[in-house]
């Protein structure tokens, strides 16, 4: 049975527990300490993040949770969109899934990541309008009217807040991969980018949530 609770908190905790107290070699340990301080610091930051974002009113939906552009397949012949790679699919905050998707617009390859590609407010609200029209049609039978305009602004705000959780989750995931993975990829650098973005944005978001 699928647990109807937001997966993001359990998943971050799972990844945090997998970070070793001491890395397998001194080079990794030194780089980790230089970039992130300590595992304890990351746990403290997680608790602070969770305490702020659990106040969100974003509804729970069954979410993909990893909608990078490579997992979105567009069929040009019939104009349909489908998703692949459901490894992380679970119940989660609606706005988290949207925020995570927008975060992936900037690129995945370390040499290609560019936050100038992060979608503008205008683009996000247009995207959210289309999403809500479909979502409210399915759930309420009415995807039109004043409720849409009101909901667009609310969901947009929730997306900005839960964007932090997306950055934090994939940053912690990448630290785990830095220790365990044999893939030729600089996971530590990717973690630095994602957690760097988290720390860059968190104070302004936390102020809004006080």
UniProtKB/TrEMBL annotation:
The keyword Transferase does not apply. Keywords: Lipid biosynthesis, Lipid metabolism, Phospholipid biosynthesis, Phospholipid metabolism. GO terms for biological process: phosphatidylethanolamine biosynthetic process. Pathway: Phospholipid metabolism; phosphatidylethanolamine biosynthesis; phosphatidylethanolamine from ethanolamine: step 1/3. InterPro entries: Kinase-like_dom_sf. This is ethanolamine kinase. Its EC number is 2.7.1.82. The keyword Lipid metabolism applies. It is an enzyme of class 2 (transferase). One of its GO terms (molecular function) is ethanolamine kinase activity. Belongs to the choline/ethanolamine kinase family. It comes from Leptidea sinapis. It comes from the Eukaryota. One of its GO terms (cellular component) is cytoplasm.
């Amino acid at each position: 049975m699928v647990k109807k609770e937001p997966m993001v908190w359990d998943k971050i905790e799972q990844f945090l527990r997998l970070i070793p107290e001491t890395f397998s070699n001194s080079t990794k340990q030194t780089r980790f300490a230089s970039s992130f301080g300590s595992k304890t610091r990351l746990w403290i930051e997680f608790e602070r993040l969770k305490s702020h974002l659990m106040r969100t009113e974003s509804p729970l939906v069954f979410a993909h949770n990893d909608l990078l552009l490579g997992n979105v397949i567009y069929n040009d012949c019939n104009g349909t969109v489908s998703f692949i790679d459901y490894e992380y699919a679970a119940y989660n905050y609606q706005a988290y899934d949207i925020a995570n998707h927008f975060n992936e617009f900037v690129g995945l390859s370390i040499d290609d990541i560019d936050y100038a590609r992060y979608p503008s407010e205008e683009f996000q609200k247009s995207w959210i309008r289309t999403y809500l029209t479909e979502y409210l049609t399915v759930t309420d039978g009415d995807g039109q009217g004043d409720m849409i305009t009101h909901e667009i602004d609310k969901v947009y705000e929730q997306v900005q807040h839960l964007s932090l959780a997306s950055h934090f989750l994939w940053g912690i995931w990448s630290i785990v991969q830095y220790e365990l993975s044999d893939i030729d990829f600089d996971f530590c650098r990717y973690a630095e980018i994602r957690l760097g973005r988290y720390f860059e944005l968190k104070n302004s978001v936390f102020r809004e949530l006080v």
